[in-house]
Amino acid sequence: MTGTILRAACLAVVLAFPQVVQAQGAAPAPLAHAGPYAEHLAAPSRAAAISRGRQMVSDFMAKRGVPGLSVAVSVDGRLAWSEGFGLADVEQGVPVTTATRFRSGSTAKPMSMAAAAVLHEQGKLDFDAPVQALVPSFPVKSEKPITFRMLAGMIGGLRHYRIGTEDFFSPVRYDDVLQYLDTFKDEPLIAEPGTKFFYSSPGTNLQGAMTQAAGGRPFPDLVQALVFEPLGMAHTTPDRNEEIIPNRTRYYERTGGARTYRIRPTSWGPEGRPERGVLLNAPYTDNSNKFPSGGYMTTPEDLVKFGEAHLRPGFLRAATLRELFTEQKTADGRGTGYGMNWFLGKDAKGRPIRWHPGSSVGGNSMLILYPDQKLVIAVQTNLTDSNMDELPRALADLFLDGGAGR
After folding, report:
1. CA atoms within 13 A on the CB side of 352
2. Taking the CA atoms of the chain, what radius of gyration do you get in angstroms?
3. How far apart are CA 383 and CA 284, in angstroms?
4. 341-394, pLDDT tens digit by residue?
5. What's the pLDDT score for residue 392?
6. Which of 239, 240, 220, 217 is CA-nearest to residue 228?
7. CA–CA separation, 51 vs 272, rounded Å?
8. pTM, full prediction
9. Beta strand 296-298 with 237-238: parallel, antiparallel or unpaired?
């Protein structure tokens, strides 16, 4: 089948049945692309898990009306599964492949933290340094200083994004992470530093400004040099609208969604409305205001490489990894379930996990590490609010439970 015919066939399927990737019980979707690991992916020990995983992906995409999705799984340092499903560009009929780049959303936060961790090991960044030690232009907010560690642990007292503002749908191009600080630096804290866990992307952007100051280079360049290049993350880059980024997906949303800051008001439907609604191009946004907290383009394979580097000492020292994965506590001693830009906990079967989700305009991401089993899984989509919280863990179960799943 020629490329033109294939694209036409793909587009016809999506326009006629936008929720369908493959028929129930059918062979793997023809849109799936296994990348350069076909021999390893076909190993008998993984065949049952991959087959079941494809069906689970198909069911999820049908239920949520997701145009395109990509998944990667590694076990003990080897890629066990990597595959793309559906369409990266619905209008042009371009299929998702393992090279398709999606918006990272907040899976950027652990990557930004990794750059800071490298600087910490080089003696250039003290995790307990107050903000003003590195960013003196940021106003002092309270008698108790806000430290880098607090920002990385979401206990710095800063707010998150707000509905109806340009926090999430930004039309502005920012040339420096310091510029975005002006949009919130004069606002009062929502809580005294260290007293309350409150998830804050602006706080992570302030953390990124501290990292930039410690590293002495523009923040995107710093992460490229300290993280992406050493880990071989060749398909990860800052999400700059003006640049030509190979294999960049298009971004989509659906009408009928609940009221959130992640979809435009014209897409909101009544609370609890079950319909998927109509597929739309997602609205424009410039993510240069949030490189540290959510502004990269990446692939599941690159996310898995990144996760692998955090399963054992090597890229980072053992002591540094312990700091990243130690649960922070509020002043009254309550655990937060969060380390330094990593969520910490256990799955439904009691296995320790470390993870971070990501929500963006036109996409969702999830990265999960199972440190005891040495398994890493990453899933990405090109649909706003695709609500895939359960899918990555269910797919991981297939590889952890011998392909049987839940």
Report:
1. 10
2. 21
3. 14
4. 999 999 999 999 999 999 999 999 999 999 999 999 999 999 999 988 799 999
5. 97
6. 220
7. 33
8. 0.88
9. antiparallel
